[in-house]
Amino acid sequence: ETALSDAQAGVFLGIRETAAAPPRVLLLFPGQAAPVRSTGGAWARRYPEVARLYAQAEVPAGDPASTVIAQPAIVTASLAALAVFERAGLRAERAIGHSLGELLALHWAGAFDAACLQRLARARGQVMAEAAPGAMASLACPAAEAATRIAGSGAVIAARNGPLQTVIAGSEVQVTRALAQAGGGVRLPVAHAFHTPAMAAAAAGFAQALAAEAARGALQPTVRGYASTVRGRLCPAGTAATALLLDQLSTPVD
Fold this sequence. Notes:
The chain has about 250 residues and is of the alpha+beta class. It is about 40% helix and about 15% strand.
């Protein structure tokens, strides 16, 4: 395999030189700030399983910045993509999920079925909507540099997305101050400071939803390994989901 990757530039690419070896597939599930759509569109018209999925999910319509609207919609869209992916006979070796996508990666790894996933997405969206208002922004620099730029602003690191992308979060005042100190950045279309201590109350509320799912036997250890953006490493088969799902609400994406 010839590597053409350049981590500092954010490029990860390789060319497999042995034709007999099949390509390896990694699934990346998105988080909030991904497109929010309440219907399956052309995919639902083309694929019966996608149409059924959207009919059963009853995805709400409304403000795409609202976690109550966005999170169930993004989860449903990802489940639709996964259904089409599997319909094509494709299989992934590993999955990883960013923020909300962690739930989807855990679903792929066997921690809970699609029905449980959708219940958890609705519950997660609801408790996060009830958190204090906040803001988030993306800076085109490493996390260490971002921390230096925003020092004293009150904003904190919320996601270490890659070598040249760091997300910060805090109150509206704190993020505005941080962006002024940092020399600019890109605001994210969200209304709360996700993945910060401001989400502690949301984590407490989500714990009740997880307890209810555990009581009905819907939560199981994973049956295959996946890459966790809560722990920042590969988690083997047999990993329990509850602690990961609670920690991810108030700790940075890694």
